[in-house]
Amino acid sequence: MKNKKNIKLILLVVLGTLVISLSGCAIIRDKLATIRGDLIGVHFNISTYDHYANKTLSLEGSKITVGLFENDANKDLESTGFGSSVLEITINGDEMLQVGNTVIFAEDGLDMVEGFQVPTDINVESGGGFVPLDRYINDFKNKIGKEKTVIISSQMGIPIGVYQGKSVYVTVPDNLPKMTRLNIDGKSLYIHRANYIIIDSNLIK
User: Fold this and answer.
1) What is the pTM of this model?
2) Pfam families, per this entry (predicted)?
């Protein structure tokens, strides 16, 4: 009986350690946040930019939803009309419609890196080898969360800003139009209609 109790205790310790270590993975933190509702109703700073990277509008709110302002062509698959590409943003119950601008939704506490010099030349002298294995390893590391640098530019290629994080997880939501979502050290960043580069930070150190 005593041995069985010891075995159970050891198993509980191992299980607890595993849960704690896994909760550090970006993808699991991301799923947990979604279950808790942290991604719906958190406070965001919303910035819009024109093609020349000029900020044209700043808003903030704690209840943010994003979707298409749909017409009949969006709803009817057999329709020969043009589907709407108008973005409908609801901010604390009020509506904003927008088309064409770059929009960045940054959760509170997620700020652009000040004074970051974007490199124009990067030399990679070693590492890698077997491409399928490299891709598999990178995919695994992405799910855990990698140290990455996010360089965002306007649709004309003019720099807007840079974000960095030690644990970055990237997804492309299938329910949000032309949107990329990043979990950066537990904070959400949504990028709509922008040019961007997401690069492993060790390549530019």
Assistant:
1) 0.72
2) DUF5052
